[in-house]
Amino acid sequence: MQPIIKVTDLTVRYEDRTVLDNINFSVAAGERFMILGRSGAGKTTLLTHMLGLGGTASGEILVDGDSIIHGDPLAKRKILRKIGVMYQSGALFGSMTLLENVSLPLEEFSGLPTDAIEAVAHNKLQMVGLGEFYNHLPSEISGGMQKRAAIARAMALDPKIIFMDEPSAGLDPTTSVRLDDLVLHLSETLGITFIVVSHELPSIYKVAERIIMLDDGKIVADGDPLTLRASCDNMAARKFFNREA
Amino acid sequence: MLNYSINSKESDQLGIIIGGRLDFSNTAKIWQEAFDALKNNPKEVIINAEKLEYCDGAGIALLLEIKKRQTEAARGFQLIGLNEEIRALMKVVTDGDASVCAIRLHPTLRFNLGALTVRAICNVRDNLSFVGILSSEIWHVIRSPKGLRWLDFWRAVEDIGPGALPIIILIGFLVGLISSFQSAIPLGQFGTQIYVINLVSLGLVKEMGPLMTAVLLISRTASSFAAELGAMKINREIDALTTMGLEPVCFLVVPRVLAAVFMTPLLNLFLIFFGLVGCALVMMHLGYNLEIFRHQLMMSVSLSSFLAGLIKTFVFGIVVAAIGCMHGLRAAQGPSGVGRATTKAVVSGIIMLVIVDGVFAVLYYVLGI
Question: Partners of A63 in the beta sheet?
Fold first, then answer.
């Protein structure tokens, strides 16, 4: 299958420190792909560069065939319209209602009339179970609901890929499970590629089809989570999977 | 209870025996003595810790610091008899990347100078880049007003204008009142008290009004923009905009800058008007009626002076909003980043205002206004 994301020889240095060291992997279209690793392993740096928000880096990241780190700003913006992002905090705009938050990318890029934009945005909110809360401000709903609203906003333009940065962070186990179910549902019904940074083992086993594990800026494990748990010979990966026991 | 002895009788060797509990409450005592003894540059330090029962972070720091100094000076160090528990605690500390910390804690002058130069160049580059993007986006909005986010524009107008009106009125009135009283005394000594009106009105219209309005907006509006955008940056809302393919400058900065350009001249007019009211009250108190006041006012303030002051306010509006937004967008991560961004916005805003005002002063002098 044609990879939708291809990372080749990606190396990132800050001053004298190598944060990512010769990273190579690709993600197939429709895959649920997770990036794991302890704090400081380079997960967020990798995600930041995959979104074209990082600084100088060597190597290449192709998103749907186009370079996101070496293209000019206009080309990058075109690529970014193919993707949706859910940040750890949700990053909803506090002065806007949920409907306005979801409508924003549609207003800017869809060319639809206002009532159509509202209808589409409302549908997206319904898909994540927040149809009734369309008129609420982010501060008026719970953390789990904010994350679901952030997924709705990420899906606004029907992207091919959705990036999620630690979606379960700060959520109770029940809400976390509901969020995982939502990701599975959206992946299976819409065929969206999910790239998720996570620490949560239950989420990893439930959602991920494939994972990579970073340690000190290098990929130390690559494969499906159950196989890696059973047979990975890397110490960092074994420590990570065995903490459940 | 800490027991220790430091034996530095032999010039080549320093022996330290430590027993009991070495913790935050007593490490200071042995620290001073140990490092005084190290000044003799012993070829080898031997620490006997056989009777050391307990050691906390302060004790570990002492042991490691002695080891570090001896190692850096290429001299010997031995630590004997340390129990397993303390050895494990020491390993936790030494497992961290000490070399990176050392580089950051003791940068050389050359390193500092280089870092400062690189930072200064990056700042200039970023400022120019921001000005370029802002100019391009404003030009784009002028050519196609549909591109402006009108709701955000009107929100910013409300925030900058009506929100600031009470303080503008108060400061304008007080500036007019105080400067009239202050100038009435010396001018009265020469029998030219009537020229207080000329002095205050011209000063307000051409210089004090625009500058005071801009300074008030820097402290109120630029700081508010910096804090608001800084908080958005920390909450990753700016990243969210970028990853939606939206340009944060167009989305967040342009409506605020245009609102400031729209409102600053209006606020300036209010400040001047209430300054003149203050001046008129003082002059009435000194026995001059309103007709005299009006006559002197019309005589002293020409249309060119009035327009010269007004034109400045448009530029001041751009400076106030752009600097506030720029520092907000550059806020560092963490709550202290917002505070620092706000302070930078106010300080650099005031400096920039004075520079721009100076440029206008030279320009108007050359033009004879």
Answer: A5, A66
Give me B305's structure tokens. Answer: 């002076």
pTM of whole model > 0.90? no
What pLDDT, on the 0 to 100 scale, is given for residue B20? 86
Separation between Cα atoms, residue A151 and residue A136, nearest integer Å = 16
- Shortest CA distance from B111: residue in chain A: A15
Answer with the residue of higher pLDDT: B195 or A1.
B195
Here the CATH number for the domain that contains residue A166 is: 3.40.50.300
Distance from CA of A14 to the nearest CA of B (A): 12
Strand ranges (DSSP E) for B169-211? none
Q: How confident is the model at residue B315 (pLDDT cuts 50, 70, 90)?
A: very high
For residue A94, the chain B residues in CB contact (below 8 A) are 235, 237
A contacts of B228 (beta carbons < 8 Å)? none
The answer to the question of residue A57 being in a domain is no
Asked if the Cβ–Cβ distance from A53 to B242 is below 8 Å, we say yes
Q: Between A and B, how many residue pairs show a Cβ–Cβ distance under 8 A?
A: 53
Q: What are phi and psi of B338, to 5 degrees?
A: -65, -45
The model's confidence at residue B10, banded by pLDDT at 50, 70 and 90, is low
DSSP assignment string, A209-234: SEEEEEETTEEEEEE-HHHHHHH---
A80, A88, A91 member nearest B245 (Cβ): A80
Q: Is residue A68 part of a domain?
A: no
In a domain, A9, yes or no: no
Residue A1 pLDDT class (50, 70, 90 cuts): low
A109 touches chain B (CB under 8 A): yes
Write out the two tokens for B289: 């009626």
Q: Does A89 touch chain B (CB under 8 A)?
A: yes
Q: Give the 3-state secondary structure of residue B97.
A: coil
Counting the structural domains of chain A, the total is: 1
Render pLDDT for A47-74 as a digit per residue (tens, 0 to 9).
989 988 887 888 899 988 888 888 787 8
Domain membership of residue A141 (yes or no) is yes
Long-range contacts formed by B65-73: CB under 8 A, 24+ apart = B66/B16, B66/B34, B66/B35, B66/B38, B69/B38, B70/B38, B70/B44, B70/B45, B73/B41
Give the whole-angstrom CA distance, residue B220 versus residue B324: 10
DSSP B222-287: IHHHHHHHHHHHHTTHHHHHHHTT--HIIIIIHHHHHHHHHHHHHHHHHHHHHHHHHHHHHHHHTT
The answer to whether A53 contacts chain B (CB < 8 Å) is yes
**What is the residue range of A115's domain?**
29-38+82-241
When pLDDT is averaged across residues A124-138 and rounded to a whole number, the result is: 88
Strand pairing partners for B22?
B55
Q: Which chain B residue's Cα is nearest to A102?
A: B244
Q: Which of A17, A94, A105 sits opposite B244 (nearest CB)?
A: A105
At residue B260 the predicted structure's pLDDT band, cuts being 50, 70 and 90, is: very high
What is the mean predicted confidence (pLDDT) over B313-334?
Answer: 91
Distance from CA of A85 to the nearest CA of B (A): 7
Torsion of CA B149, B155, B159, B162, to 10 degrees: 120
Kind of pairing, strands A210-215 and A193-197?
unpaired
Token duo for residue A85: 């992002």
